[in-house]
From TrEMBL:
Gene transcribed to yield this protein: fdrA
Limits of the CoA-binding domain: 191-279
Xref: Gene3D superfamilies: conserved protein of unknown function from Enterococcus faecalis V583, Enterococcus faecalis V583 domain, NAD(P)-binding Rossmann-like Domain, Succinyl-CoA synthetase domains, v583 domain like
InterPro entries, sorted: AllG-like, CoA-bd, OXTCase_su_AllG_h-dom, SUCC_ACL_C, Succinyl-CoA_synth-like
Domain ATP-citrate synthase/succinyl-CoA ligase C-terminal: 342-495
The name this protein goes by in its record: Acyl-CoA synthetase FdrA
Species this protein is from: Muricoprocola aceti
Amino acid sequence: MLKTIVKKGSYHDSVVLMLLTNQISALEGVKKASIMMATPANKDIFRQSGLDTQELMEATANDMVVVADVEDDSLLDQIMETAEEFFKKQSTVSAGKQEESVKSWDKALDKLPDANLAVISIPGMYAALEADRALDEGMNVFMFSDNVSLEDEVALKKKAHEKGLSVMGPDCGTGIIQSVPIAFTNKVAPGSIGIIGASGTGIQELTTIIDRLGEGVNNAIGTGGRDLSTAVGGITMMDMIDAMEKDDTVKVLIVISKPPAKEVREKISDRLSNFSKPVITLFLGEKPEYHEENFYHTYTLDETARLAVSLVRGEEIPEATADVDSSEFYKAKDKKTIKAYYSGGTLANEAAMLIKDAMNCEIPPEDIEGYMLQLNGNVVIDLGDDAYTKGKPHPMIDPAKRIECMQEAVDDESTGAILFDIMLGYGSHEDMAGALIPTIEELKKKAENAGRKVFFVATVCGTRKDFQGYDEAVKKLKDAGVIVCENNKLAVRTAIQAIGLDFEEPAKEIRTKKTAIAEKAEPSEKLMQLLSQKPKIINIGLKSFAEVAEDFGCEVIQYDWMPPAGGDVRLIKTLNFLRNYEGIDEANRRVIAKVVASQPVIKHVKRAKEVIPQIAEGKVILHAGPPIEYKNMPDPVQGSCVGAVLFEEWADNEADARALLESGEVKFIPCHHCNAVGPMGGITSANMPVFVVKNETDGNEAYCTMNEGIGKVLRFGAYSEEVVNRLRWMRDVLGPTLDRAITELGGLSVNPLVAKAVAMGDEFHQRNIAASLAFMKEVAPTITRLDMSEKDRYDVIKFLADTDQFFLNIMMATAKSVMDGARTITDGTIVTSMCRNGVEFGIRIAGMGDEWFTGPVNTPKGLYFTGYDEEDGCPDMGDSAITETFGVGGMAMIAAPAVTRFVGAGGYEDALRVSNEMAEITIDHNPNFIIPTWNFQGTCLGIDARLVVEKGITPVINTGIAHKIAGYGQVGAGTVHPPMECFEKAILAYAKKLGFEA
């Protein structure tokens, strides 16, 4: 039965998960298993394997998914325990490394601003987008990732060329830059031979032969397999030829590739004919008949390496020989075949070429994926081809597929020789020889028992400095009866001889060089710097690449990449457009500058109809959140409307009030459309007293009703006589009293009150006690001097003293006035409003003005009063999230660690974590409001919708929880997050406004 485990937000590299899959699959009782990130491409692989489930399809690209066909449910616990131990071991392996780790481009560039190389090893569908970002940041790119479209490769390489940079790849498996191994590379001595090639095993074979012959390589640049295609035109190759010519450390240049497109080959050859140093070309599959002066043309990798060393030394290097007893080899008449299984395409291609040569056979390349040759029973397969590695480990790190192939080969009675490579070096299996030997010994015995002989022939690609140990690997194989050859050419020739055939490699004469007319370009300073200094690397993906570079003395930042924007390519492209669009960052800064410069002042407390024109005539009710009809409002909000009708005396009982509300006679308007905000239900009617806060900097005002206290109150949907009477007392006594006091004070500046309260432990959404007391401290002396009854005076001061949350509504009006002033900047991606109506959550961003972007509202998570639980909670509602937009509330959790337990966040460490996370999606800190518990940083400021979408982090909002049934009032408090959908819609709309649509 298929069982699925989804680990939300748990990202791991594909290679790591492939290795874990192998381990899980080996557990007893597990018939089949696959562990991958739930990207669209991986979901297809799951589906093709018969492992697709509903839970998998609902997961996102940032979720790790385990799908296993198991005999018993109890195995799931064992699977997860095994996975946890595996990840723990992975962490332990890296624990001693010093490379720094970050989770975003911004942090990476902050840590290493002069980085000049991005090493990218992430899923191909995202690799091009990250490479584009790296180029924008002035960095060269080494793209290990494959499955990048040809269109993207062309665009990236053209962009790199224009910027004086280089893109190595995609599918660039191997590189050496200033003796630093990049990706799957061997530990090679530095030296005066330069290499430019398609990458992969071809470069490894060349560099390791050169190393074992006693010479070295400073730079071996991989171009990617398609660079010399007609579409790409050799962009990387040509730029690197120019750079290598100017590099004084290069004495001999090697250029290696599969056969290029005809016109590209001519362009490359013409340029190399003008090269000022000795140059060797190896176009695999071509069999050149001569050399030219200082322009040499070779047939095999071994010939190329030996010739390069001989040119450096000025002496001929003899060919290697195989130590083998050929007396038992088959004769041609025996009609035996070779089965060759390789880790990479270049060595496999060379093997196929030599076998065809031995058979005097000219045949086109095979159409079957992975097959380099399939001729009369002879087979050469590149097991590193995508056909064999999609969703599975590469044969360099996992012996499973090669073992399976060897078993099939021995079962074929025609098989006389099994040919294979062992790749040593960084990224490869720690002991591939040891992993294959039990199978080899078993198969040799099986063939002997059947009266047959199968010759196992291997080449070990590596140096004596590789951690696996070259000599140790050779000895293990020889002890197991394997014929081990010094290089691939010799191994192929030995396998060919083992079936009674051979090929000729005639000596070449040296002719006068024909120099073509070819333009030489001046290499950029950035390319020359890349070839002359140790690279400064941002490593995006496989951590092992960073660890190796660090071991070689490089400055490295490990970017623990996760798919941005939940892996949605359309959104990622939109984000890239908005990141590069000129003026957005500047506009966002101007929005922030307005917020910082604002001077909000409490001017008055007036009846709503006196300051809000839309509410002055007729039956009008303002509500929280984006627009909503009465019939669609949740029950508590409808209850609040009933309370407002009773308060305004538009009806004298609940039944008549509901009938009026349902009749359509009452007009409903969002508070935000009237420069107002309202807590929870947000209900505001004509005669309710509201704070008038003026943003003196911009001259605009904002309004908010007064806080009623806690318990059964109108904002939570209660509408009893007690609730209505309190509202009338606030209208008749509290409001006028505060208005008189504030007027006499000449207004009350809010910023100083906020600054004091932040330092005293308020965050201004759940905790307002310090600010409420500071407010009372300012107005109480004046109230004591007002001409009013002693009872009213006492009641007012007592109410202010008892209402810990009183300042919340002042903060809401303040935030509204400031953000409305800031959003007069009509460009950029800063969030200027967030609100909810119990059904929808809505946001606005500066660049889209008054337009709302909505999504389904969530229900808060938190702590409930005794007798209530989550089943009783109402979906989130209210305009109070304007405080988070202003940078307080949940955005300033660290300011009020006393609140964190109450809102369900935990303790101080959780508060710190939340605030640090919120800093990831904001662009600045507000210097007006310093938080002592946060190393005296200012509160978070400027929620950038781009960052929210890119990082998958939505703002945290502190909130009260209303009962889902009107009349119960508040039943708890907690935190809630907006739906990501709001922010996605906002950035897509803004990009479209600017002329871009992905």
